[in-house]
UniProtKB/TrEMBL annotation:
Gene3D superfamilies: P-loop containing nucleotide triphosphate hydrolases. It comes from the Bacteria. It comes from Oerskovia turbata. This is ATP/GTP-binding protein. Signal peptide: none annotated. InterPro entries: NadR/Ttd14_AAA_dom, P-loop_NTPase.
Length: 219
């Protein structure tokens, strides 16, 4: 990503602890806003028995009147991203068999793209915040490298409906590009899923089943 400097080994080089040795399967469903991550996560969880940890709404920063994410300042976006990241880490650390709806990368990708677009628009901006978000994205990348067994990436295929457009189509395209770049840097296998919801669920269930089989039969 712009502003970040990945090592030649990818962000897995920062993972420190290395890959985990558990027998459970941890799946991360990733992609831009509105591509069906929550739908796939829920359906795949029901089909495979994997838990899907719930998340609080990303809104209402501490110290400010209640407000939506879109109404938040740059500093408030950082606060909410930290809150969500901490919640993900706590829940996912306690769940050996699970599906992460978005992964620990999701909020930092959103924040990075939002700050980048504001900078390009010429809006006044705190450059320190961009550096901080880049740093947290690298940290999240390293954590993802040692947490997940596979990524299921859902591409943008259709525009959002006019009545539900919290972000623009160009924002979604940038978020997908950064998600692809960052997941690739983790060294974790990335599977692109396309087609109908049922096509995606069937393909995802097959992938999870294969990983489970390999785990059970590994020496």
């Amino acid at each position: 990503m712009a502003g970040a400097s990945w090592p030649s080994e990818g962000c897995a080089a920062w993972s420190g602890e290395g890959r985990r040795e558990e027998t459970g399967v941890r799946v991360a469903v990733v992609g831009a806003h509105g591509v069906g991550k929550s739908t796939l996560s829920g359906e795949l969880g029901r089909r495979t028995g994997l838990a899907v940890p719930g998340l609080d709404a990303m809104r209402d920063p501490v110290g400010s009147p209640p407000r939506s994410l879109l109404e938040c300042t740059e500093a408030e976006v950082l606060q909410l991203s930290l809150r969500r990241y901490a919640q993900r880490v706590e829940q996912e650390s306690a769940t050996p068999d699970m599906i992460s709806d978005g992964s620990v990368l999701h909020e930092w990708v959103y924040a990075a793209v939002r700050l980048r677009r504001q900078a390009l628009s010429g809006a006044r901006q705190d450059g320190v915040l961009r550096d901080v978000v880049d740093g947290f994205l690298r940290e999240a990348c390293a954590r993802a490298a040692r947490t997940y067994d596979l990524f299921l990436l859902l591409p943008v295929r259709f525009p959002l409906p006019p009545e539900d457009r919290p972000v623009s189509e160009s924002f979604r395209a940038e978020a997908e590009a950064l998600t692809r770049e960052t997941t690739a840097e983790t060294g974790v296998p990335v599977h692109l899923l396309d087609g109908t919801v049922e096509d995606r669920v069937a393909a995802a269930a097959s992938i999870v089943g294969r990983v489970r089989h390999e785990r059970v039969n590994s020496p």
